[in-house]
Amino acid sequence: MIRLLIPLLFVALLIPETSERDTDIYDFDNRRHVTLYNTYAYQDGDEWVVPARVWVHKQRRWLQGLTNWMVRIMGEYKPGEMEIFRERLTDILADSKWRRTVTITFPGDPEEAEFRIVDAAGEEPRTDRNGMIVGNIRIPAEDVERITGGLNGEDASVKAKARSNRYRGHGMIRFMQPEGLSVISDIDDTVKITEIPAGARTVVLNTFFKPYKASPRMAEMYEQWDEASFHYVSGSPWQLYRLLAGFLLSEEAGFPEGSFHMKSARKNVLTISSWRDMIEFITNENLTFEQKISQAAYIVERFPNRQFILVGDSGERDPEVYRTIAERYPDQVKEIIIRDVINDRVNRPERLEGMTIFPAPTVLRIP
Description:
Layout: H1 2-12, E1 32-36, E2 39-44, E3 47-58, H2 63-73, H3 79-89, E4 95-96, E5 103-105, E6 132-140, H4 141-148, E7 156-164, E8 167-175, E9 181-185, H5 200-209, H6 218-223, E10 229-237, H7 241-248, E11 258-263, H8 272-283, H9 285-302, E12 307-313, H10 318-328, E13 333-340, H11 344-347, E14 356-359
Parallel strand pairs: 2-8, 9-10, 9-12, 10-11, 12-13, 13-14
Antiparallel strand pairs: 1-3, 2-3, 3-4, 3-6, 5-7, 7-8
Helix pairs in contact: 1-8, 2-3, 9-10
């Protein structure tokens, strides 16, 4: 099915944008977005540093036409599944905006201070050809006290707004104390059922065509850490952030708010290689291995006095990722919890040695 999906998506992109203007499903003013990805902040002397990522983009008008065309071509799928498919494609097919500046503000700030993302050289970059700016926001400590209303030694989440001319968006920033408890959590097959061991076809169906399903009993476990800060690290590409975050943080799924750390994929949707990226990034556990180590290690290093609980699943290489992190930072990793989806507690117990096992229904591995 993957071989069929890629060329169909490529051909679908050739549909003229003007073909469905009369049935555009997006309101004109609401098609322009700045996605400010949920993140965190740590204190560095007299400043707070916010690792930030923003994306300036516009929804394409012809997505409804794409859906109708795909329904005719891919007759094996039900209309409801095609509607899900259209929704999942929305951000993947969005029109990224180049050379845009982005301003960050905080609602309720009496001084209405404005902030910009700066790069490693201290410059304020504009969006690249993928519509992205990645860097840090540096906020003076006295401004943080005013913006948050006073942290009083506790972690606090604050809504931030992003603006680029007529483009608007918002996200959350978690201001984290040097000491406390943090949870680093995988997403696929840990908090959301994806069934990666079942093979690429199943992953594509669960990622692009089926309603998202939360992993049973995991949200209840996360609720027990009511004073913790959460970081969701995933092998899925950033283009799926909005829908993944919207689902996980909804009342239906019930997971706590947190920062997101995902994988960068090529954004040029007019190349077949970009679509291969989308699928391979989700299914190739070797690509995900180094990414998760790098992103988890970066978080742990920012907070040398915090304790961390690491939560993942056995279907990918989460046990190996987290064991590596625990070996690097033995004084900080409090516990490793693995949702065992391939019955390694019986088949390969040595792989999960020293970890807390969360039993789950077995997903049969398909080569």
